[in-house]
Amino acid sequence: MVYLIRVELREDYSNLIFYLSPLVAVALTLFFGSFIFLILDLSPIESFKIFFISPISNSYGISELFVKATPLAIIALGLSYCFKNNIYNIGAEGQLTMGAIFGGGIGLLFNDSTSVFLLPLMILFGAIGGAFWATIPAILKTKFNTNEILTSLMLTYVALFILDYFVVGPWKDPAGYGLPKSMPFPDAGRLPVLIDGLRVHIGVYFALIICLITYIIYNKTLFGFKLKVSGLSSKASQYAGFNYKNLIFYTFIISGACAGLAGLFEVSGPIGLLYRDISPNYGFTAIIVAFLGRLNPFGIILSSLLIALTYLGAEDAQLFLKIPSAVGFVFQGLVLFFLLGTDFLNKYKVFIK
Amino acid sequence: MQSIVEFKNIFKSYPGVIANDDVSFNIKEQSIHAILGENGAGKSTLVKILYGHVKPDSGKILINSDLATINSPSTAKNLGINMVFQHFSLFESLTVVENLILGMSENISLTKLKDKSKTICDKYGFKLNLNSPISSLSVGQRQSVEIVRSLLNSPKILIMDEPTSVLTPDEISKLFKIIKNLVKDGLTVIFISHKLEEIINLSDYVTIMRNGKVVSTISTQNEDPETLGYKMLGYKVSKAKQVSNIDISRDIFNIKNLSTQSKDPFTINLNKIDLNLKKGQIFGIAGVAGNGQKELMEILLNENDYEFSGDIFFKDLNINNLSTFKRKSLSISYVTEERLGHSAVPEMSLSENIFLSMNHKSEFKKGDFINFEKINSFASDVIKNFNVDTPSYNVKAGKLSGGNLQKFIIGREIMSNPELLILSQPTWGIDAGSEAFIKKTIVELSQKGVSIIIISHDLDELLEVCHQISVLYEGSLSNPLKVEGINITKLGKYMGGLFD
Questions:
Q1: What is the pLDDT of residues B170-196, one digit of tens each?
Q2: What backbone phi and psi angles, to 5 degrees, belong to B445?
Q3: Domain that holds residue A67
Q4: Are residues B127 and B273 in the same domain?
Q5: Chains A & B: contacts with CB separation below 8 Å
Q6: Could you tell me if B203 and B256 lie in one domain?
Q7: Are residues B87 and B7 in the same domain?
Q8: Are residues B180 and B287 in the same domain?
């Protein structure tokens, strides 16, 4: 026999398992993750406690969970539009950065403002910045048929360099001891927190509202229907008379605007100014969040909380277990790996000879 | 002669349907055994069970009187069972021999394989250039590749699923000669078809299936198409009858001097096509597949912003630059050749598939929102009026059989009240019952004043329903021939490219 492994499409692949597979993936991640702790000579049970339970055992921890989950959820909700349409925008990190530059730029421009309109204006420009950055791969895709995966990814690094330029150049805080950061935004440009003393901010409301609107769009509207058809079959979408170029634009703009919004919330919320490392890869991690949530808006909210926990767990693990915080990324990678694996096995039968 | 295959009490059910109900019959060695039945009669399920594609709920299969457990196509192949599917699975950009080697389960060198294939081709008269790419082959030649690929495995039993549905009359008679020679050399052929005359001409025995059950297994010797058709359906089929009811004063659709100049080697360029369609007229475009039908359909639909010269008029309005959406809004309806993934989305419900084609109609929308109530009731009407066999409009389109889905799609387009209906291969690969129903519906529609264009490889179908027929050959369209009193020899010449 030439082939050791053979793969066959299942004719009756299960919808139920499609929605259960995130749970299977999480279970497998915990199982195999425990080996990582064993190799590091740590008790898996104790380590999991520190990783997944102790970070959210007090009100500060829960607030931090929402602080991390909010940008993940907002970006992933936006990305779900692209992914449903079979467009792979993986440049949300860049769109987030551009949102922070645009929105944050407004905050710096009016740095002595006390107007109540400053924050809404910053939010608006944050969304515009992200959307603007997302239209570039959309134009390249529709005009020149370039691969949006490559262009959106490469533009991420361009955006990061632009931010770099601003914080070491024109926007550098003169009173900042030469550090590559801007001056702080005025109070009118800061995102209100929900509870005094904690960092959880009104971005949570935005995430929930975007989730609800997305649910309605996906299930009740012509636009949602167009996305569904285009994602399932581009030929059927043409038969139906849908303009696929417009759909590519709309979905890129929506996901870019969401990422830009998340970027602005980060800088005007927890951070309060512009500097180099505004995002711990939220834009990339949100891709995992979107797929783990099965591109379903409510599923995305749940998965954003789970993935946010891996961020917090990694910080605690670094503190208390003395292991590198990169373990958090290992867990994110494992979840995605097992999710793709369960999806594959749900769709195909594998024979080993 | 001994039985090579024995089906014993095969039972297979799917949610809501019993596909095979206590199926038992024997297939004699070295015979041509046809399986005849309507869609949903269970013939595809049965051969898929034999080929290891589907697992039966209960029942046994004996091969050469030994109990066989066939879990997968590869075990079937080990037992000497091979299958030629209705839909080919060839790689277009690879050559014939490259496609052949991909189907081999044993290790074999390319030269050895070439020799082996050549022997088979010479022996049975397959005219294949082993080094040409699949994309340059006609449908008939592609089928030959599929058959040669099966024969390379030296099978004892060859299953052929509707093999003639894509062939010209000439190709069919060649295929039959080959099949008869193969049987002489020891092969047993299981032949699925719904064309009654073919079955009588070709096969020795026929098993007739209806609603999952075997009606009878008989020798074809003393049968004629009418008696066989009656046994298959349980009732008599009436042929669609065309009556002239054309309003010659009113042009509905005109194509003037349509040409394309694509440099893509995988497309056929259209050459100065003219077409004139009157109100209530059915116009057939005949021709062997791959002569520009796909390209013409794409231009009529405007799916890919295809570049062309010339003009297309719908009721004196130039629609050259109108999008698919706008053309549909003008009451032009389409049924494409591919059902799954083109004119219907298999993963979506029947209701959603209604909206797929009706999204330009305001009655199904409330602003930007979808009016599901209206769509569901419209879907129910289509299912009822067009005899679609399905438990509900929530069923996914992919779950319907070919004939049922086609009735649903054509029903959907007809109920959208089109003035012009363009159909491509409307009865391709579906059963006799649905085919007769669809033809009758098309004729009735034209009598209500709807103009219809049918692109089809099936000449019999066009001769039955059309008023006029033109032949498409290598991108050129012949002058139209009136079907009434048509000169068949002339039509045959046209199909070979010899226009006046």
A1: 778 888 999 999 999 999 999 988 777
A2: -65, -40
A3: 43-322
A4: no
A5: 71
A6: no
A7: yes
A8: no
Q: Are residues B208 and B68 in the same domain?
A: yes
Average of pLDDT values for B272-294? 89
pLDDT digits (tens, 9 = 90+) for B409-460: 999 999 999 999 999 999 877 777 788 889 999 999 999 999 999 999 878 7
Q: What is the largest CA-CA distance in chain A?
A: 76
Whether residue B242 is contained in a domain is answered as no
Q: Residue B241: inside a domain, yes or no? A: no
Do B342 and A223 count as a contact with CB atoms less than 8 A apart? no
| CATH number, domain with residue A161 | 1.10.3470
Question: Is the ipTM above a cut-off of 0.85?
Answer: no
**3-class SS of residue B100:** helix
Residues B229 and B255 in one domain: no
CB contact, 8 Å: A246 with chain B?
no
Q: What is the dihedral of CA A352, B5, B9, B13, to 10 degrees?
A: 50
Q: Which 34-53 residues of chain A touch chain B by CB within 8 A?
A: none
Tell me which residue range forms the domain holding B373: 247-495
In-domain check, residue A159: yes
Contact between chains at A8 and B72 (C-beta distance less than 8 A): yes
Q: What is the DSSP secondary-structure string of B250-293? A: EEEEEEEEEE-----TTSPPP-SEEEEEEET-EEEEE--TTSSH
Closest-CA distance of chain B to residue A10, Å: 10
Q: Indicate the number of domains in chain A.
A: 1
Q: Can you give the pLDDT at residue B370?
A: 93
Residue B480 domain-assigned (yes or no)? yes
- pLDDT reported for residue B108: 81
Residues of A in Cβ contact (< 8 Å) with B303: 235, 238-239
Q: Is B139 touching A (CB cutoff 8 A)?
A: no
Residue A171 C-alpha, separation from nearest chain B C-alpha, in angstroms: 44
Q: What is the pLDDT of residues B67-90, one digit of tens each?
A: 988 888 888 988 999 998 877 788
pLDDT at A219 over 90: yes
Residue B204 and residue B130 in one domain: yes
Q: Mean pLDDT over all residues of chain B? A: 87
What is the pTM assigned to this prediction?
Answer: 0.76
Residue range B252-276, pLDDT digits in tens? 999 999 999 888 777 888 999 999 9
Residue A21 belongs to some domain of the structure: no
Closest chain A C-alpha to B99 CA, distance in angstroms: 17
Q: List the alpha helices (DSSP H) in chain A.
A: 15-39, 44-48, 59-84, 92-109, 118-144, 148-168, 203-220, 222-232, 234-239, 244-266, 282-292, 297-316, 327-347
Report the CATH number that the domain containing residue B124 is assigned in CATH: 3.40.50.300
Give the orientation angle of helix A327-347 with respect to helix A297-316, to 10 degrees.
150
Confidence label for B154 from pLDDT (cuts 50, 70 and 90): confident
